[in-house]
């Protein structure tokens, strides 16, 4: 009886070992994901060909697009919105025959959310292939097909989410929500400021950059809908990070002539292909770097920051 028990144990051990070794062999044969390098190189090569996104486009749509748009979506913990955003926007743009690809700019570092810096990273990654970008909030869905995501004119950026159409923000200098910018214009403006950690004001500073570059914001004309039915705002009422610490309030109210594309510091440790409802998108995992001497408000969680915010 004892010998039988020992034999059973030995047999189980051999089977378990074989299973583990077999699993290791199988894993070694599987294609690996993105390598853990410090930097993923920007895109390069020929401009993309319109594919499945144009299945709903008019029959006379040319396969080779004159212009190609990179949809840059600053992102952190908004998966529910993303599941709605991707199929909705893809169908919307397909009806217009707009060649595009969606890039989700996923901030994975420990610092506060920095929408502007993420857009700068997305621009650096895509600008060799795409000739204009859409700076696009993940929670704002266009409903009116009169909103044309066309290549911006020489005048300057095209603001799709115009103040008279946006469901929430109506001041004249507002350029948030959805803004289309040519790559040459974005480069000339040195991109966006990198000083805006937390929520708000980065768009207002960018408006000043547009003006200082001698450009002007253009907006859709003759739109037949209003602020109540031009967009669907699918924000899930998450608490926004509006905290101000150190001298953040003072500094971020001024035009930033120091930071932008040329001072951007970041790493992209991985890039992932993802499919939502059969639509292929690209996820960039982004680690932003913060110079605590320049912008200590990238982290307002410490005791010193809490004390400074109360002054």
UniProtKB/TrEMBL annotation:
<keyword id="KW-0479">Metal-binding</keyword>
<dbReference type="Pfam" id="PF13733">
    <property type="entry name" value="Glyco_transf_7N"/>
</dbReference>
<dbReference type="InterPro" id="IPR029044">
    <property type="entry name" value="Nucleotide-diphossugar_trans"/>
</dbReference>
<keyword id="KW-0735">Signal-anchor</keyword>
<keyword id="KW-0464">Manganese</keyword>
<feature type="domain" description="Galactosyltransferase N-terminal">
    <location>
        <begin position="62"/>
        <end position="150"/>
    </location>
</feature>
<dbReference type="InterPro" id="IPR027791">
    <property type="entry name" value="Galactosyl_T_C"/>
</dbReference>
<dbReference type="GO" id="GO:0030166">
    <property type="term" value="P:proteoglycan biosynthetic process"/>
</dbReference>
<feature type="transmembrane region" description="Helical">
    <location>
        <begin position="12"/>
        <end position="32"/>
    </location>
</feature>
<comment type="pathway">
    <text>Protein modification; protein glycosylation.</text>
</comment>
<dbReference type="Pfam" id="PF02709">
    <property type="entry name" value="Glyco_transf_7C"/>
</dbReference>
<protein>
    <recommendedName>
        <fullName>Beta-1,4-N-acetylgalactosaminyltransferase</fullName>
        <ecNumber>2.4.1.-</ecNumber>
    </recommendedName>
</protein>
<keyword id="KW-0325">Glycoprotein</keyword>
<dbReference type="GO" id="GO:0000139">
    <property type="term" value="C:Golgi membrane"/>
</dbReference>
<keyword id="KW-0472">Membrane</keyword>
<keyword id="KW-0808">Transferase</keyword>
<dbReference type="GO" id="GO:0005975">
    <property type="term" value="P:carbohydrate metabolic process"/>
</dbReference>
<keyword id="KW-0812">Transmembrane</keyword>
<keyword id="KW-0328">Glycosyltransferase</keyword>
<comment type="similarity">
    <text>Belongs to the glycosyltransferase 7 family.</text>
</comment>
<keyword id="KW-1133">Transmembrane helix</keyword>
<dbReference type="GO" id="GO:0046525">
    <property type="term" value="F:xylosylprotein 4-beta-galactosyltransferase activity"/>
</dbReference>
<dbReference type="GO" id="GO:0046872">
    <property type="term" value="F:metal ion binding"/>
</dbReference>
<comment type="function">
    <text>Catalyzes the transfer of galactose onto proteins or lipids.</text>
</comment>
<keyword id="KW-0333">Golgi apparatus</keyword>
<feature type="domain" description="Galactosyltransferase C-terminal">
    <location>
        <begin position="157"/>
        <end position="231"/>
    </location>
</feature>
<dbReference type="InterPro" id="IPR003859">
    <property type="entry name" value="Galactosyl_T"/>
</dbReference>
<dbReference type="InterPro" id="IPR027995">
    <property type="entry name" value="Galactosyl_T_N"/>
</dbReference>
């Amino acid at each position: 009886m004892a010998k039988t028990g020992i034999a059973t144990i030995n047999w189980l051990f051999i089977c378990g070992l074989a299973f583990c070794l077999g699993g290791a062999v199988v894993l070694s044969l599987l294609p690996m994901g993105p390598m853990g390098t410090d930097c993923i190189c920007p895109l390069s090569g020929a401009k993309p060909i319109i594919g499945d996104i144009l299945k709903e486009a008019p029959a006379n749509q040319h396969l080779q697009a004159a212009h190609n748009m990179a949809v840059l979506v600053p992102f952190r913990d908004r998966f529910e919105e993303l599941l709605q955003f991707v199929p909705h926007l893809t169908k919307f743009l397909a009806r217009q025959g707009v060649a595009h690809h969606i890039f989700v700019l996923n901030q994975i570092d420990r610092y506060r959310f920095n929408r502007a810096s993420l857009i700068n990273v997305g621009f650096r990654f895509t600008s060799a292939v795409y000739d204009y970008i859409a700076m696009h909030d993940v929670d704002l869905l266009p409903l009116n097909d009169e909103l044309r995501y066309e290549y911006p004119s020489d005048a300057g950026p095209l603001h799709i989410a115009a103040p008279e159409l946006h469901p929430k923000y109506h001041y004249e200098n507002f350029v948030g929500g959805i803004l289309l910018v040519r790559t040459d214009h974005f480069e000339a403006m040195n991109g966006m400021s990198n000083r805006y950690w937390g929520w708000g004001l980065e768009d207002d500073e960018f408006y000043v950059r547009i003006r200082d570059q001698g450009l002007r914001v253009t907006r859709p004309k003759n739109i037949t809908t209003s602020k109540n039915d031009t967009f669907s705002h699918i924000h899930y009422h998450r608490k926004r990070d509006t905290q101000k610490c150190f001298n953040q309030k003072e500094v971020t109210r001024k035009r930033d002539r120091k930071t932008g594309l040329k001072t951007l510091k970041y790493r992209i440790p991985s890039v992932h292909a993802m499919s939502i409802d059969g639509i292929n998108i690209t996820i960039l995992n982004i680690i932003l770097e913060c110079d605590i001497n320049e912008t200590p408000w990238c982290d307002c969680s410490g005791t010193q920051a809490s004390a400074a915010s109360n002054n």
